[in-house]
Amino acid sequence: MATAAHLELGQKGALDRPVPTSPGTDWRKLFGLREMGVYYALVLLIVILAIITTYLDRSNYLSLLNLSNVVYQSSLIAIMAVAMTVVLISGNFDLSVASVAAFAAVLLIGNADALGFWPAAALAMIAAMGIGLLNGVIVQYVGINAFIVTLGTMTAVRGLVLIYTDGRSLSASDVGVIETMKAIEGGRHDAFWLVVAAGVVLLALSLTSLFRVYRAGSALRPSAVGMAIGGIALLLIGWASGGELVLRNPVIYMGIFTASVWFVLSFTMVGRRVYAVGGNPEAARLSGINVMKYKLMAFVFCSGAAGVAGILFASRLRSINPAGLQGAELTVIAAAILGGTSLFGGAGSVVKTLAGALLLYSLTNGFNIMNLGANWQGLIEGIVVVVAAAIYTVGGNKMKSKTGG
Amino acid sequence: MQPVQPIMQLRGVVKSFPNGTLALRGVDLDIEPGKVHGLLGANGAGKSTLIKILSGAYHATLGEIIWRGNPVSWDSPRAANDMGVATIHQHIPLVPTLSVLENIFLGSRGRWRRSSAVNVQFEELCRRVGYWLDPATLVSSLSIGQRQMVSILQALGTGADLIVMDEPTASLASEERELVYSAVRRLSAGENKAILFVSHFLDEVISLTDKVTVLRDGKAVLRAETADLDESQLAEAIVGKQIAALERESEQRGARASSSSGDRALLELRDLASPGRLDPVSLNVASGEVVGIAGLLGSGRTELLHAIYGSDNRATGSVVVNGSSIARSPGAAVKAGIGLVPEDRMAQGLVPDFEIWRNITLPALNGVSRFNSLPVAERERERGWEAIRLLSIRADSPEILVKELSGGNAQKVTIAKWLFSDVKLFLLDEPTAGIDIGAKTEILRLIRQLAAEGKAVIIVSSEFEELLAVCDRIIVMRDGRCVAERHVHETTEHDLLLLAGGQQAPLDTAHS
Q1: Residue A233 in domain
Q2: What gap in Å lies between CA B217 and CA B205, rounded to an integer?
């Protein structure tokens, strides 16, 4: 393997330049709005709501019960948003997620009685991933803009739902099926040890990174700081729960899913290539990356996740209304935007998207607790999304002008 | 015969930039109405700077610009336009989504988007230029040649008396060139316009222009009537008589060139072609050999590299590396040990939002990963540091985003990508474009070192001086074809210039 070490070119600083040393950690950028804004907003929101609800003497907002309820409510959207983030990073767009989820839900309920839960679920997943493949093929091979293609599939698949259900609601009636659904979606587990273990692992990873940085004197990476904070947060949650942290299954699925996607995106070659494909598809192609394959995979992955969300949704209600999840795609995208995902591709963080989803649902939850009319929710959510995007854009521009180049 | 008063005169124009570059060192230029004035010079001689000053985009640091007998100082291209100077830039800036008519009258200040007066004016312009096309056509559906004609109509439409044309025929097919030539002749002879015609093609300049000015190193070194010159003299003026130090090195290397015939070729191209852009090429390159591709803009050099690399999926023919034919995709090429440094570094060579280290490791993640799937952060940063050290990249750390680097440094990152894996063949497309002279030399030395280690290099460059310094063999391309092949010690820059832009050209000189 050529290490190129013997190509002794600029060693003596051919043009009298000093050997570059690494700068210290840019703490301001690290903790600035662009990197951590969504977390600040989430914490701020929770604090504000806690204060208001205590002042208004409403039910205990800050209780573990209420908070875990918020997380439960957001779990399905969060799963879809995490997968959507992957599609956005790869430089594409998928408006069809909610329709695909609804379709998967309908296929599950419609067929579970006849085929049994698992075969029906498999059918739903195949259909969902098939739609993802269709999206990908049309976008990449025909060359139509992803926004337009998925707008089309969104409408068409919703139409399929209507055709399949004949406009009526469907329910599952088989006892065995219902039991499975309850177990999958409604089951609860004590996630205390899982959370503590995750916290410890994160903290350990970040500490080793910190140690290496301290020895080498190089800059601290945002991911290391993020992991440290995340690890501490998880441990705090574990401590606050007092030894028993009972969470409903979808929350656990969401957590494991987000953690896995985060791992792949941040630590693996595959993840690196996804970012490259979105950041500059031509440069990625000329570096030998199979851009087509990655973009297609992103679509299939996203629709697959939507399929899973649909199955969970159906299992939650044990029945499905053909208009189920309608409009959810906008919440999914809003969560990704709040998380700082770039709509042009090449940048995004699934953990921040998760925070974005939690933010949106905390808002809703807060409204409910304060008995603020449902009419106000849309307005406030819309304002939040625009403000968040503004902060990211302005923050990004300031960063550009500071460093010149 | 009454002497004609020049419509535009430059007297001692000097242009220096804040970073210290002295682009023009006192240029004198006289452009007369009714004549076609050719402007030539190598890359970096100061042509573009001069054009920008004429068009009003730059201010001259020193010297005078005399327009119609009065000294002027333009604030903006708009001001220059209003005074009567129109510039047709090299990469024709038309709006693709608007029609021909709307583009031609883009700068006009009328209130309505469409009016009958404008249509009448359009017909008039077409008559004067001697070229007509449907005014309602969208520019996006026009060929490059047609767009060039539209920009000529646009320039005339502004009422200009001096039209500056920057390399108008680069990338044009020969019939399209003829259209441009006849338009130029009509405008100068028929309308008494002054035309400044910038070109690299010597044959074109000889047949089309009345006077010629050659720039070299920021000064006008030759000002003459075209009738008194031939291509060879022009080439000499452009190149100058000095031989660069690196060229001397290449003479010392002369003996080696003939000894490589014994080795089996590392790369074999068999009838490699791309319909419409590249005629069939068959070529062998041995390991340790540096082959240069010389040619002007539009000669098919980049197309050749992309065909070899597999990134052009319309290509036909086969590419054989070390005896095995490789599939037509960049992924296959990379696996076979080929690396490409593309022409446009920001659009094709780098991911702008990635840091230096992330760009460097992109084609060769295997070398820095555990279990072939998990990149190790420390090893990646190390590669970044090594790249910075090796190529003297002016960056404080590999964590800097490449979009914040200057052009030359970004280019070095694009090259460094390929130095850390088992690349056997380097395809370099204008690798020293936009790099300062010190760094250029470093890169050229790097190329020689790679060759010394047994790598093969194919380098495309429009600076023939460089090719002579670093290559063993040079292939000249023109119009998508290989027109000549020379061993480096049997040719000179002058010779290459003639081959690339001169003699072989099928230009009909009977018209003028």
Answers
A1: no
A2: 20
A vs B, Cβ pairs < 8 A, gives 141
pLDDT score for B23: 82
Q: Is residue B208 part of a domain?
A: yes
Which of A200-209's residues contact partners 24+ apart within 8 Å by CB, and which partners? A200/A231, A200/A235, A201/A231, A202/A227, A202/A228, A202/A230, A202/A231, A202/A234, A203/A227, A203/A228, A203/A231, A203/A232, A203/A235, A204/A231, A205/A231, A206/A231, A209/B377
Look up residue B99 and give its DSSP letter: B
Summarised one tens digit per residue, pLDDT across range B190-231 is 888 999 999 888 888 999 999 999 988 888 888 999 888 888
Interface of A with B in 52-71 (CB under 8 A): none
Instruction: For chain A, positions 272-331, list CB contacts with chain B under 8 A.
Output: 272-273, 275-276, 279-280, 282-290
* Cβ–Cβ gap B442/A14 under 8 Å: yes
In a shared domain, residues B224 and B265: no
* Residue ranges in chain A modelled with pLDDT below 50: 1-21, 402-405
Q: What is the pLDDT of residue A206?
A: 87
CA-CA distance, B399 to A3, in Å (whole number)?
A: 21
A208 in reach of chain B (CB within 8 A):
no
Residues B193 and B314 in one domain: no
- Please indicate, yes or no, whether residues B24 and B110 belong to a single structural domain of this protein: yes
Q: Which of B205, B239, B273 is the last residue of a domain?
A: B239
ipTM score of the complex?
Answer: 0.79
Domain residue limits at B13: 8-239
**Does the structure show a pLDDT above 50 at B491?**
yes
Tokens of A308: 């899973």
Q: Where are the alpha helices (DSSP H) in A187-248?
A: 192-216, 222-241
pLDDT at B255 exceeding the cut of 80? no
Domain count along chain B = 3
For residue A106, give the DSSP letter.
H
The nearest CA of chain B is from the CA of A279 a distance in Å of 5
Query: Are B131 and B23 within one domain?
Result: yes
In chain A, what residues touch B350 (CB-CB under 8 Å)?
A: 280, 283
Last residue of one domain, picked from the residues B395, B421, B447: B421
Q: Is the dihedral of CA B260, B265, B271, B275 positive or negative?
A: negative
Tell me which residue has tokens 């030395």: B445
The one-letter code for the residue type at B476 is V
List the CATH number of the domain containing B293.
3.40.50.300
Mean pLDDT of B358-378: 87
Burial label for B430, CB within 10 Å (0-12, 13-18, 19+), is buried
Inside any domain, residue A365: no
